[in-house]
């Protein structure tokens, strides 16, 4: 009787651990995401309900974060305003990606006069400070939130175009692009089936950063009256309305300011975590 030799065990594959910054970013953003989706149901009071008899009440059991000059609950307004502020940042970033990625792909792939014309147009847009360019776009029409989203999206198109073009130029030197050309594939196939799938990791990191800048720019436009309009509970508008009462009732500005700071820090940490997670140097075997 012969002894059976046990088969060697297959080596265990180790999944890359999640970066701490990614986990912390998700933890910070999770409550904001819930508030953005269900803020209207979670708010203890209607965000626009006025009660002059309760105006400028300090934080307490009835009003957790106090009331504003019209007796509106600050906590309820901040909860409902989460959706408005985050949607502005995400929608503006999506708009900049939808416009900037195709332009960057074309500029990097075609080059020549077409690429030069696209990049010179982007240089013109980048010559304006973001807040000034946003004001110029909004100055010709009545202020509204959707117009602010379009303006912010236009502001950040050049950065997306430049990043996409730079990555496309690098990928054009790769062998799989040469092979696709030798097979006789057309430009559209190479751009959207060969190049685009390989540029999404840096674009994902760039998108997270753009969301931060878009939220801050949206809050700035609302702060100066060019974005969301009353009685909206947008964070920037709430902070603007709290200016005359900063010494008397600082809680009116502190609550939306804290929410804005949490969103910015959380998205920044999320972007840092994505960068570390998607870095090819961190995907090797442990």
TrEMBL record:
Keywords: Cell membrane, Membrane, Plasmid, Transmembrane, Transmembrane helix, Transport. Residues 82-271 form the ABC transmembrane type-1 domain. The chain crosses the membrane at residues 20-43, 86-109, 121-140, 211-229, 249-271. CDD domains: TM_PBP2. GO terms for cellular component: plasma membrane. One of its GO terms (biological process) is transmembrane transport. Its main location: membrane. This is ABC transporter permease. It is a multi-pass membrane protein. InterPro entries: BP-dependent_transpt_permease, MetI-like, MetI-like_sf, OppC_N. It comes from Azospirillum oryzae. Belongs to the binding-protein-dependent transport system permease family. It is found in: Cell membrane.
């Amino acid at each position: 009787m012969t002894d059976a030799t046990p088969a060697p065990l297959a080596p265990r594959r180790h999944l890359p651990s999640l970066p701490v910054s990614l986990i912390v970013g998700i933890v910070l953003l999770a409550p904001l995401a819930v508030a953005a989706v269900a803020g209207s149901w979670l708010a203890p009071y209607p965000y626009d309900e006025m009660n002059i008899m309760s105006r400028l009440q300090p934080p307490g059991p009835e009003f957790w974060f106090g009331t504003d000059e019209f007796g509106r609950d600050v906590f309820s307004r901040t909860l409902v305003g989460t959706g408005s502020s985050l949607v502005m940042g995400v929608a503006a970033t999506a708009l900049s990606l939808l416009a900037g990625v195709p332009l960057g792909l074309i500029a990097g792939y075609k080059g020549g006069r077409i690429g030069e014309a696209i990049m010179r147009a982007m240089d013109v847009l980048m010559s304006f400070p973001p807040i000034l360019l946003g004001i110029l776009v909004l100055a010709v029409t009545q202020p509204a939130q959707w117009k602010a989203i379009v303006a912010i999206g236009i502001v950040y198109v050049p950065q997306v175009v430049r990043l996409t073009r730079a990555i496309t130029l690098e990928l054009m030197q790769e062998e799989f692009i040469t092979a696709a050309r030798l097979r006789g594939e057309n430009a559209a196939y190479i751009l959207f089936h060969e190049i685009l799938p390989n540029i999404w990791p840096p674009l994902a990191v760039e998108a997270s950063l753009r969301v931060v800048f878009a939220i801050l720019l949206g809050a700035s436009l609302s702060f100066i009256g060019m974005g969301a309009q009353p009685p909206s509970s947008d964070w920037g508008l709430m902070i603007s309305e709290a200016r005359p009462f900063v010494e008397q009732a600082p809680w009116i500005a502190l609550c939306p300011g804290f929410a804005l700071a949490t969103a910015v820090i959380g998205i920044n940490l999320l972007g840092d975590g994505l960068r570390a997670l998607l870095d090819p140097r961190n995907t090797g075997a442990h």
